[in-house]
Amino acid sequence: MWYEVAADLIAVVHLGFLAFVVLGAILGRHNRWWRLVHIAAMAYGVLIEVFYWYCPLTYLEQYLRRLAGRGIYEEAFIAHYLNKIIYVNVPQWSLILAALVVLGANLGLYIHLWQRRQPLPQ
Prior knowledge:
Strand content: under 5%
Radius of gyration: 17 Å
Structural class: mainly alpha
Low-confidence stretches: none
Oligomer: single chain
Order of helices and strands: HHHHH
Number of strands: 0
Helix content: over 70%
Mean pLDDT: 81
């Protein structure tokens, strides 16, 4: 039972990391260190999607589910849980596209914030 609770906790942490990747630019508008951590997290997320890697949190969750005697899923974390929520097969290319769109939107916000801080030429 404890393994299953731990696996669920890892899934929640994983979901929180994904929320941070998607929304981090909004939350980190005023904190330079937050922005740097967020940019690194976005780069990591895009690399994972583009190169078809699994996040270590996915491996840890699956390991704990196996110890709990539960079956494990074969696809990536995002694909697995999106398929459970919306009942469609999410192709990998759409996850890559979504990751690139999120990256572009967040970087666009960071560029906008940076331009607003620059003094206007006189």
